[in-house]
Amino acid sequence: MTSRLRIAVQKSGRLADRSLELISGAGLRVMKGANELLYRIENQPIDLLRVRDDDIPTFVADGVAELGIVGYNVLAEHFPEDDLEERIVMRLGFGKCTLKIAVPDTATYEGPQSLEGKRIATSYPNILGKWLKDKGVTATIVEMRGAVEVAPRMKIAHAICDLVSTGATLEANGMKAVDLVLASEAVLIKAPHAPPADLEHVYDMLLRRFDGVTASTG
Ligand code: ATP
Ligand code: ZN
């Protein structure tokens, strides 16, 4: 069996369709086979590894996949800041969202210092922890896997740090966004080691094509 390159992509969710669009835009013909975990590319020695987005940074860092498509927010939660740029091949221009501090509509917020001594619920404890440290604020981070927006109403926390695109979810929960923690978009990431020598030309071709597609779609 000849070896094949692997690209880790989100199986289903907000990045799944756009990731597949990028891949077909690069001329790869995706075979949606019986194997839900692995899609084969018909016309290139490439497979798509379809996983939860949270697993993508580690899979790519471990070399289980040579490339991966993941939100910058997920990458930044997994690795320290000074380690991020060398993992990123290119920014992909989709999946844009922001990680924001939000507080109940009735609360006053006069900057990060308003969070001093407070409890903040988030699924991004590392990113939030670093932001608070940079701002010189000491607060308690309450880690939640989901439904972060209900934390203030449930008296679990005073504020939240959560992904926002339209703000509709915040509004529906009686909250307002008051500060920006991180701006994010989907990024293409690469394994720390070079691809196998016999696949180097496929790898280089792929990066050129992704670059072309990303440049033309902005
Ligand atoms: P998975 O099942 O793969 O773990 P998930 O529920 O963690 O999925 P999604 O909600 O599908 O993740 O979001 C995937 C990524 O899409 C986010 O990490 C983020 O980079 C991006 N994204 C874009 N807009 C939004 C938004 N409004 N809310 C949340 N994420 C968004
Ligand atoms: Zn996830």
Automatic annotation (TrEMBL):
Family in the record: Belongs to the ATP phosphoribosyltransferase family. Long subfamily.
Reactions performed catalytically: 1-(5-phospho-beta-D-ribosyl)-ATP + diphosphate = 5-phospho-alpha-D-ribose 1-diphosphate + ATP
EC number(s) stated in the UniProt entry for this protein: 2.4.2.17
Protein's gene: hisG
Function in brief: Catalyzes the condensation of ATP and 5-phosphoribose 1-diphosphate to form N'-(5'-phosphoribosyl)-ATP (PR-ATP). Has a crucial role in the pathway because the rate of histidine biosynthesis seems to be controlled primarily by regulation of HisG enzymatic activity.
Keywords: Amino-acid biosynthesis, ATP-binding, Cytoplasm, Glycosyltransferase, Histidine biosynthesis, Magnesium, Metal-binding, Nucleotide-binding, Transferase
Primary site of residence: cytoplasm
Residue spans crossing the bilayer: none
Pathway membership, UniProt: Amino-acid biosynthesis; L-histidine biosynthesis; L-histidine from 5-phospho-alpha-D-ribose 1-diphosphate: step 1/9
UniProt keyword annotation of Metal-binding present: yes
Name of the protein described by the UniProt record: ATP phosphoribosyltransferase
Domain ATP phosphoribosyltransferase catalytic positions: 52-206
Part of the full-length chain shown: 1 to 218 of 292
Signal peptide: none
